[in-house]
Amino acid sequence: WILHKRTHGLTSKVEAETFARSADHNFEREVQLGTTETPFVSHREGEGERLEILPLLEDWATNPHSTHRVSALLGSFGSGKTTTTQLLAQRLGTKYRADKHSTLPIYMDLRRLVGLVEPGQSTANLELGHLLKVSLNSTIQHELNENHLVEFLRSTNCTILFEGLDEVGTRIGISATSSLFRQLLEIVPKRAWEAD
To answer: Residue 23 burial (CB < 10 Å; 0-12/13-18/19+)?
Structure first.
């Protein structure tokens, strides 16, 4: 998701710095070391023209005129979705540290929710701020207030990268995953949906 309104409050600056500082913690070792292969995309997996995907995703994430607020990266097991998402977060983090006016990457690993939600259980009884905080890097969770997290994400120029929705879905079921996805979409401010 790309949100274009900026906040200038002290809390927001502290939270933004917290996210920027932790941008690539807990990423795959190859991503941290810069030894991954260049990820490519094609219209059908393994078929047709292959394009480098990172420039396309980076353009989507940083283009304020993009009309696609939500995007999904699809592929089979082991096709590089996690690596690609982490590389995008790393690239955006590097840009953000150099220019605080660029989009702030927020990497959320939804696989961290697995112990929180039982198979078939809806997430509707869990606060959105709590779900988001649990999905963040564990090294920064204690620094963030879950009551302010949702508003921070709604009011900050950021790209939120959710990782692992498919893996959570296989554990909690289709209905609970649909509920979780709808809940996560609440991050996008109503005025942004109306503007689209």
So the answer is: buried
Q: Are strands 104-109 and 158-163 parallel, antiparallel or unpaired?
A: parallel
pTM as predicted: 0.82
Q: Residue 131 — φ and ψ, nearest 5°? A: -60, -45
What whole-number distance in Å separates Cα of residue 191 and Cα of residue 51?
34
Helix (H) or strand (E) holding 162: strand 158-163
Question: 180-193, pLDDT tens digit by residue?
Answer: 898 998 888 777 77
CB atoms within 10 A of CB 39: 20
Distance, C-alpha 60 to centroid of its chain: 13
- Decide if 91 contacts 34 (C-beta within 8 A): no
Measure the CA–CA gap between 180 and 131, rounded to whole angstroms: 9
Question: How confident is the model over 37-60, as a mean pLDDT?
Answer: 85
- Which of 127-142 are b and which e, b meaning 16 or more Cβ less than 10 Å from the residue's Cβ? ebbbbbbbbbbeeeee
Q: What is the DSSP string of 82-139?
A: HHHHHHHHHHHHHHHHH-TTSPEEEEEEGGGGTTTS-TT--STTS-HHHHHHHHS-HH
168, 163, 136: which is closest to 82 by C-alpha?
163
Scanning the chain, the segments in alpha helix (DSSP H) are: 10-21, 29-33, 53-62, 81-98, 128-135, 138-141, 146-155, 165-172, 174-185, 190-195
- Cross-strand partners of 160: 106
The answer to whether 159 and 102 are in contact (CB under 8 A) is no
